[in-house]
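Need tokens for this chain, all 75 residues.
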Amino acid sequence: MWAPHRPSLFRVTEIVGSSHEGVDQAIRNGIARASQTLRNLDWFEVTQVRGQIENGQIEHFQVGLKVGFRIEDTS
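Here are the structure tokens for all 75 residues:
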């Protein structure tokens, strides 16, 4: 039986992913870690990109992320 689609409700949290390899890997590391404790991850938005420099070289990258996840319907 067809049921009308119920609108989803999302919660947003902010995290920071890091990597020595680059921005893309920092995003992937952040999402992988968030998925260990948050259910129903649905989307992300990059809010910041920064890095740490040591001895004139890039030591690691940090990426600020907003992560959206669906709140489960309890009805």
